Amino acid sequence: MDRRAFISGITLGLLTSPLAAEAQPARMPARVGFLTPNSRLAFASGERRVYREAFSGRLRELGWTEGQNLVIEGRYAEGAYDRLQVLAVELVSLPVDVIFANSAPAALAAKRATRSVPIVFETLGEPISGGLVSSLARPERNLTGISGLGPELSGKRLELLRELVPGLRRVALLVNPKNVMTVPTLRETEKAGAILRLRIEVLEVRSPDQLEGAIGGVGSDGATAMIIVPDPILLTNARRIQALLLKHRLPAVHAETGWLQAGGLMLFGSSLLDHFRQAATLVDKILRGARVADLPVEQSTRFELIINLKTAKALGLTIPPSLLLRADQVIE
Fold first, then answer.
1. Residue 4's Cα: distance from chain center in Å?
2. What b-and-e string marks burial along 148-165, b requiring 16 or more CB atoms within 10 Å of the CB?
3. What CATH number labels 10-148+272-302?
4. Do 141 and 292 contact (CB within 8 A), yes or no?
């Protein structure tokens, strides 16, 4: 698969801001804030543990070892976006030398909390439309990070679903409206749906107790499929959502590898393991004195197509050979 074909140009946004403060090498031990809307358990032993290990592992490769010259201060919102702001302020007041913000909502909370502490974000979305930065080449202020180009991949996910489900006419999007990346993703998906002549329906879920009603109300008629729009809170409930998809016989495509552990059918998106390792590299540069204004936002260069044959069988689907040949990984 030619992954470079999926990377599109991005226009400048409208934000303006003062220049970030001059960076100084971190004191020893260096203190890194780790801010996420997910749960502590998810990163300790759950579906996101591999990402936390990728982040700290890359820092070790670069000479930063926890308990020696590095302290990582974790702050977990436990699935509540409205807690992120308090946690971001807490990290700034410690203080920390740099904040790693996992997801756009975490990055926005950190951005509101400080104009001086460097922030490295990781998001599957596009950071300009999400309000994080005004330019990828010169992000300004105190933010830089990794972008997954999520909205731009929406059309490709629709194409994959249409290839997977013969006669596909309707695609339901499961979204968390509290996530700032939801709107640009919906916009791109609806544009692609119009071109592909697919009806797009939006299912908003603000809390886990709304999942049964949202997914159960879709109804599978053999011509319906779903896209789970990237969101940390939805991912936290991956196993519950996947059980509902199987119950209602709804094929779905995901954007994050964490869904595979829950039995997700098909994944197409940028590599989150790469995101966390890239973010750690940026953190290292800042700890060694680099100015955030000199560190452009990096874009994903590797995209994965993964198919779960076990889940396909449970849904009564036959995966077309053309899809299997293009898959980076097939789970049997």
1. 19
2. bbbbbbbbbbbebbbebb
3. 3.40.50.2300
4. yes
Q: DSSP letter string over 196-250?
A: HT-EEEEEE-SSGGGHHHHHHTT---SSEEEEE---HHHHHTHHHHHHHHHHTT-
In CATH, the architecture of 151-270+304-331 is 3-Layer(aba) Sandwich (3.40)
Are 232 and 124 contacting, i.e. CB atoms less than 8 angstroms apart?
Answer: no
3-class DSSP state for residue 154? helix
Q: Encode pLDDT of 40-95 as tens digits.
A: 988 987 778 889 999 999 999 999 999 999 999 999 999 889 999 999 999 999 99
Residues in the chain: 332
Q: Specify the amino acid at residue 56.
A: S
Q: Is it the case that residue 33 has pLDDT exceeding 80?
A: yes
Q: How far apart are CA 154 and CA 147, in angstroms?
A: 15
- Tell me the domain boundaries of the chain: 10-148+272-302, 151-270+304-331
pTM (predicted TM-score): 0.83
